[in-house]
Design brief:
0% of the residues lie in helices and 50% in strands. The protein is mainly β. The strands form twelve sheets. Strands 34, 35, 37, 38 and 39 form a five-stranded antiparallel β-sheet that branches. A five-stranded mixed β-sheet has the order 40-47-46-43-44, with no helix packed on it. It starts with 20 loop residues before the first strand and ends with a strand.
Length: 641
Amino acid sequence: MIVCIAFAANAQWVDDPATNTLINSSHNEYNELYQSRCPNGDFFVQFCNMNGGDWNPKLMYVTKDGVPMWDEPVFMGQSGSTMSTGVSMAATTDCCAVSHFAREEGGYGPYAYKVNAQGEIVWGPIKTADIAEGAYQCRTEVVADENGGVWVSTTDFEQGIHVRHISADGTMGDDIRIPVGDLGGVQKMLAADDGGVLVAYQSYDASQGWTAYDETIKVTKIDASGNIVNTQTMMNTTTIQGWKFMNIIPDGMGGGWCWIEHCGGEVDAFNVYVMHFSAEGNCTTYADHPLGVQVSPTDELYYRLEASGTYDVVTGDLILAFRETDAAYQIYNSVRIVRVSQSGELLNGAGGTVIVPVSETSIGQFSIACAPDRSVTLLYCSAKDYNDGQIMAIGTDPAFSILWEKDFNTNECVPSSKETTAYGSYEYADGQFVIFFQDVRDGVNGLYGQNIQKDGTMGPVIENPCNAPTDLYGEQYEDGENYGAHITWTATTGNELSFNIYRGETPAEVELIGETTETEYFDELTGAEGGFIYAVRAVCEEGESDPATTPEGVEYVVVNIVDHTGITENCEDDITIHQNGNDIIINGINAESIEIYNISGQLVRHADANNVISTSDMNAGMYLINVKANDKIISKKVVIN
């Protein structure tokens, strides 16, 4: 099937939030909003128009500059109600969108369509699972693989969860069933780095009734061939009263984060709980509570609700925003942000940092993103009355100190509704954070979009003609009794006059320390210890470039400097450091402490008074191990497979 679409280029991002960028106004409602970004930076935006019972999903294609490329949305399905409660959408690596949803027409069940950037339906409808009549109540999900295909999943209340791979050309793989007990709950998916998929889901013991039941949340790893290779319980509790909302996001390192909002019951209720899982689906977070890490201590005077998260692009930490409200009336609201390490430590303290102070304003619908320099942007809806809501933006540094605040000047953002802003936005790309939302301007309901840059600037992103270097890398070097940091990078412009080198203790506090015309720099640090942050900028006739980036897109490197005095690397015959399976073992000495650093100089593992340290949940790669014993530091590089 081919749908003819007229192309338009009549808008782009604006720097005046009073106007925002109108994407489409041909429908009177824009519900169940989803947005997903293509590899080229452009966006697909999906919505449903529920007025009159037409719940079929529709798509728009918008460039990264804010230009809607179609005059009218692509319509998927047939006329009439689909009664879908599980609409989902994902952009693929070949810059298409796959929509996965349930409908009544043509037989009960979930269906998928693939639409390209020209508005043509590439394939579909494809029925992705055979389930019993009444499938319109099912929950559907879709995530993209690395080859233009997708993984889709559907909850079946009788048969468990159906998972299936669909290749770029529409060829379907086997129907993989995940058993979930008496009743399958919400399921979410993440694409795995090895071509497989990670599925997080809830399961209940429905025989206990709907007001009190046992529940577990599990993660199942399916490999690229469709084999279930691992299932682990992330959270476990008994006799829950009420309900939970669950979500997951990637950690940027192959694993993922899962959190739930425990919204009922008598024990530790109305709080948010967090767990982390590795690329293999193993739980890495250690918590005393069976539900996971509490973002804030239990307090019967307060509720913690409506959490939204992103990941730190450098450390993989979870950055989670949530609403705190009074338990008595739920009218006094504030917003807090908490940073959680993969081991479960609340890095900015239990309860996190207050970003929006307490007021009688309704607050909800959070979207949050972390930029390459680790600065954070939080978007949220704020309203004193039901129909006067504003989308607000706040920018912070990595420690959550507020740097700037902006108002999107919307008119009808409703904090209590999850229909106003699009689901699926939690990352920076092309120097901006983009959100799509529903609003009313001059009496006309429309789909709007707005970008915001990490410094709070809205409107067109001005590209620097002096391109930033790439392949930024740093490591410690030694030259006799002297040592320091060796920084390297790759020039990209070809007309660079020189390169400026910056160093500091935090990404926001680096200072210029040198200049070179080469693509490497030696910074002597004899006598110094600790982690040093380095940034590099090219200098051209037009001025200075943006910071150089690592292969992972980070705008700086951390070099861990160890004092040369007293350091050995297997230089004593009776001291050895070796790897045995998933363990690092130290022989010939009683270790006082063991520290493992990645190649960026980040501390990823620490153990006290132990000669064995596990690496089972660490990503493959090269690491530096420092063992402290008898006033010595024994250092060794190892490769973990």
